[in-house]
């Protein structure tokens, strides 16, 4: 069969969910994948990176509690961590995800897809065979993003790691230079410093520059406490490999020398050579979409997940995918379209309600707008900060707990516009904040959401008391 209602290009976490929703809406669906079903998140991003981070975080957590600390006196078993990572990614075998695709009645087509015309896709397989697929209703491009490589003289020839090599390495190098102080940079610095690798982070700005400034400051201290060197406000001028070492020359006159260099300087869309130019778009661009994830100017084409550059996160891509799959089915079936803000067919939360956890040392969990972003958006805000370590639950959670929380209140509407927590194990505090931000829960009603004693969630009470 070559004629479907919907063709999904890319079977990452996003593409799988678009296909699932369109299929649940009664449509026939083909999904095309030229690597592993499950995509980056399962095999080269979220899952392996968190597997590399988790064991050392668990060990540090035990070391932070007297009584437990005395019981854990050994070092991290680094080879066991890599083995656990291998199990987490199923040894890069996608059989389980293929089984799921087949079980829900989606046709998997292996090969590289390219748009060849209106609702037409050519798929070339590894043996050079070609198959032409047509879609009656829609094509969804879910091809994700790849590591961006800055144009620094000598860098490419120095055979740098990208996040792929960092998450799939079989052993830890003795030294690692990391270019970029964003999320990938600080997470991989945390992981490899935990393995005993001599880590140097080179960041042209402060760490985690899109977050509240105190997040980057606390993470810098955390990385230094793990033995990493952090250089901020520094640019790389050139790089080259000499024997088994990479040398990176910096604009402060210094040179960083390491066994490997990881380039963690953001992402570029995987849209080269997928035929965008044949449908009136520009090859290699991020896809510009409306809130129903439909590509602007092409009414049968959708761009979902990283490829649309709205929020490069798995959970946000899957959220978009649920809206996109449902709206594709609704449009095909002539059903009512719910595309007003917060309707089921639009990804409204992408704009000002995106949650994210950075699994660094310490963790950073945030949702919504930072104080700076809210002020820039013209909101009348009030900022409330509180030391997380002063909450009874935190002091029990770990000895000497130190962290910080910030609540950004939209004073006009008296709702929370943004929330940031930085500290050990703050990840699970985030969903309550996301509900408050998305639900636009009035501050006065939040007062009645009483956190249990003695949990870290009492940070909510402290922030609200400070606000009052
Ligand atoms: C190191 C790292 C850690 C991360 N950790 C987290 C995290 O903890 N939490 C989080 O929310 N996000 C995390 N992210 C971001 C997350 O990985 C991405 O947002 C997510 O994977 C994007 O999903 P996607 O489906 O849009 O793209 P992808 O997962 O990249 O899927 C795209 C798929 O399309 C396929 N494809 C591409 N072109 C074609 C073609 N022409 N034909 C056929 N198939 C094609 C690819 O092979 C791929 O399988 C991390 C990213 C990195 C780099
Ligand atoms: N836990 C998570 O949720 C998680 C983990 C990893 C990655 N991600 C996602 O993956 C995406 C990619 O992460 P990332 O860290 O690569 O990107 P990023 O945008 O978070 O950080 C990139 C950093 O590189 C710097 N940079 C860019 N060009 C540079 C240059 N020429 N020289 C020096 N520095 C340069 C930027 O200033 C920035 O600090 C992010 O959007 C992130 O949301 C999420």
TrEMBL record:
Binding residues for NAD(+): 180-187, 266
GO biological process, one term: 2-oxoglutarate metabolic process
Keyword NAD: yes
Cofactor(s) needed for function: FAD
InterPro entries: Class-I_Pyr_Nuc-Dis_Oxidored, FAD/NAD-bd_sf, FAD/NAD-binding_dom, FAD/NAD-linked_Rdtase_dimer_sf, Pyr_nuc-diS_OxRdtase, Pyr_nucl-diS_OxRdtase_dimer
Ranges of residues in domain Pyridine nucleotide-disulphide oxidoreductase dimerisation: 354-460
Record key words, sorted: FAD, Flavoprotein, NAD, Nucleotide-binding
GO molecular function: dihydrolipoyl dehydrogenase (NADH) activity; flavin adenine dinucleotide binding
Start and end residues of each FAD/NAD(P)-binding domain: 4-315
Cofactor mode of binding and number, as noted: Binds 1 FAD per subunit.
Pfam families: Pyr_redox_2 (PF07992), Pyr_redox_dim (PF02852)
Cysteines joined through disulfide linkages: 41-46
Chain sites annotated for binding FAD: 50, 143-145, 306
Family: Belongs to the class-I pyridine nucleotide-disulfide oxidoreductase family.
Protein name as it appears in the record: NAD(P)/FAD-dependent oxidoreductase
